[in-house]
Amino acid sequence: MTTATNSPLSVSIASAAHLLNGSSNDYDPLMDLIGDARFVLLGEATHGTHEFYRERAEITKRLIVEKNFDAVAVEADWPDAYRVNRYVRGRGDDADAERALSGFERFPTWMWRNTDVLGFIDWLRAHNDALPSQAPRAGFYGLDLYSMFASMNEVLRYLDKVDPEAAARARARYACFDHYHQDSQRYGYATSFGMSPSCEEQVLAQLHDLRSRALEFRDADDQLAADEFFYAEQNARLVRNAEKYYRTMFQGRISSWNMRDLHMADTLQALAAHLSRPGKAAKIVVWEHNSHIGDARATEIGYQGEWNVGQLARERYHDDAVLIGFTTYQGTVTAASDWDGPAEQKQVRPALPGSYEEAFHRTALSRFMLPLRINHVETRVLPSSALLERAIGVIYAPNTERQSHYFYAHLAHQFDAVLHFDETHAVQALAQGAHQQSGEAPETYPVGV
Fold this sequence. Notes:
Blueprint: H1 8-16, E1 18-19, H2 28-34, E2 39-42, H3 50-67, E3 71-77, H4 78-88, H5 97-101, H6 115-129, E4 139-144, H7 148-162, H8 164-174, H9 184-192, H10 200-212, H11 214-217, H12 223-248, H13 253-275, E5 284-287, H14 290-293, H15 300-303, H16 309-317, E6 321-335, E7 344-348, H17 356-361, E8 367-371, E9 373-374, E10 377-378, E11 387-390, H18 401-405, E12 406-409, H19 411-414, E13 417-424
Parallel strand pairs: 2-5, 2-6, 3-4, 3-5, 6-13
Antiparallel strand pairs: 1-8, 6-7, 8-13, 9-10, 11-12
């Protein structure tokens, strides 16, 4: 490992860092920084690094046990994650955690079907099972919007149980999509370029129809009925937003990115409202890529007009939102070389000179937490000028590293703290040979994070 330099930056970072040595009190300073915040957003610099998944899980366990957090909300589709939610709360039909995770069938399956997530889901089920019978169970939810057709099917499945006539009306509306053969990208292309009329009116009508029956379907005295209505309502809202997302996906990155992150932020807000109880506002941990949970206003992407979940969380919740980024200097990562390609263990190149990751590496500290804001006041550990920051999604292209995986950012404005792991390792997938199982777009498409 490179020895620490005498540069003012490396000295400043090293002097402010809290070392992480694997002890039980590693994250005491982070718990203090979080305080009574209701939303803790935990990032990752890649979608395939073991240490990021493992440490997010350890932090989340402490938040659930010590600070009474109610749920984990992740960068995943709503129906797939809700299957896991039913399992961890003892309501599903799955015999074990691996079976509950098997709903994640589309590329990139390793993102959620991996040994680290499996271990956390096992822990969450055991934690919930040990609670008194009437105590609320911690849940597991998805925030993303790629499951347009799967969510239609879930709306229909729900209505078939509670109101067959309403289900028939919903089928007639959703039939607008039939000739696209459940291919969301085909629908988006055809409607974006005027080759086919959109189904916007139909999905809006279905969402309004379902919401108009809320008092009838949602029984305040029956938590299971309330949960199932909320699940169906969010699926109908997802269909509405996904329909619009796919129509804008071919019109430019910024508009579709903003629509996706707005949907995730709105889902988080709706989930918090649903989980809150009299005298107890819900507290939620979010697991997403740094690109989503770091404040976009502090990055060159934000300067171009993009916003993200982290920015929206700060704007909506102020001091109640804490944003934690994760970085690495080198190692291995699970990623693909192309969309819908197989999972590969790839070598992560040493970070570029002039990047935050290289500056962290040159402290010679292998694992540490760096607080960037204390009581929401900047610590001024890092320079005021922007530096490069690396982001690896589900695709890693080392041959075009600078163009594909780096952007300029002011890290101290982007996050409240950063966890750095100098050398990291690829996450271990539960299923190899990941590929798309339907016409739904791959998760994270087309930006990869």
